[in-house]
């Protein structure tokens, strides 16, 4: 059984649940969605809740990360870059006793007043929680984004997969994936 839902609204990754042909989550689609300024596409899950697939949400306090000039963490006048996760999507493969979720996220990186052009590595974490909010699995990634003076806003996207066990008597829809930035990254605050 496979299901697909997105936080991109409007069935960007496929048709209705009646359609057996489901498009896969892809970095290109997420990147296009991140660049979209369409206000109808939400930053979190929009649409019907699928009881057969865990929810994918953006962590409310880790949806952005700010990097500061060395030695000035927390100083608003020393912001080098700021990253934001703005869109998500997921696709599930359900098997007896476990679920595999192919999930994706996209966003943007803004060059701050003290920022230098070049490559910025964004640290991403994903926690898989059961219905009691107990972490049952996790995943982490580093996403490289190139930003420059001529391009002060850059966009990023990534697609990853996580597999985790489902407790006996539980439904996959009772679980959730929470994606966010790792706020312990050096130079961030």
Task: Please write out the topology.
Blueprint: E1 2-6, H1 27-35, E2 55-58, E3 64-68, E4 79-95, E5 98-111, E6 118-129, E7 135-147, E8 153-165, E9 176-181
Parallel strand pairs: 2-9
Antiparallel strand pairs: 1-4, 3-4, 4-5, 5-8, 6-7, 6-9
Describe, in plain words, how this protein is organized in 3D.
There is one protein chain. The model is unreliable at about 1-25 and about 40-50 (pLDDT under 50). It contains 1 helix and 9 strands; from the N terminus they run βαββββββββ. The strands form 2 sheets. Strands 1, 3, 4, 5 and 8 form a 5-stranded antiparallel β-sheet that branches. With about 190 residues, the chain is mainly β. It has one helix spanning about 25-35; strands spanning about 1-5, 55-60, 65-70, 80-95, 100-110, 120-130, 135-145, 155-165, 175-180. The chain is elongated. Strand 4 and strand 5 form a beta hairpin.
Number of structural units classed as domains: 1
End-to-end Cα distance, whole Å, is 41 Å
Low-confidence stretches: 1-23, 38-49
Q: How does the major sheet shape up?
A: 5 strands, antiparallel
The helix/strand series, from N terminus to C terminus, equals EHEEEEEEEE
Radius of gyration: 17 Å
Query: What value does the average pLDDT take?
Result: 80
Strand percentage, roughly? over 45%
Helical proportion, percent range: under 10%
Number of helices: 1
* Envelope shape: elongated
Secondary-structure-derived class: mainly beta
For this entry, give a set of tags.
mainly beta, disordered N terminus, four-stranded mixed sheet, 189 residues
């Amino acid at each position: 059984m496979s299901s697909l839902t997105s936080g991109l609204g409007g069935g960007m990754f496929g048709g209705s649940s009646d359609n057996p042909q489901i498009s896969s989550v892809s970095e290109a689609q997420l990147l296009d969605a991140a660049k979209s300024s369409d206000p109808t596409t939400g930053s979190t899950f929009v649409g019907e809740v699928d009881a057969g697939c865990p929810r994918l949400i953006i962590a409310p306090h880790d949806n952005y990360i700010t990097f500061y000039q060395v030695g000035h963490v927390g100083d608003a006048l020393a912001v080098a870059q700021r990253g934001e996760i703005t869109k998500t999507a997921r696709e599930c493969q359900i098997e007896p006793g476990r679920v595999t979720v192919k999930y994706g996220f996209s966003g943007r990186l803004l060059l701050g007043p003290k920022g230098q052009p070049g490559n910025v590595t964004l640290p991403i974490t994903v926690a898989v929680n059961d219905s009691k909010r107990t972490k049952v699995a996790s995943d982490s990634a580093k996403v490289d984004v190139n930003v420059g003076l001529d391009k002060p806003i850059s966009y990023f996207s990534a697609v990853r997969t996580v597999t985790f066990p489902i407790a006996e008597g539980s439904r996959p829809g009772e679980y959730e994936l929470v994606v966010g930035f790792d706020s312990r990254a050096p130079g961030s605050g």
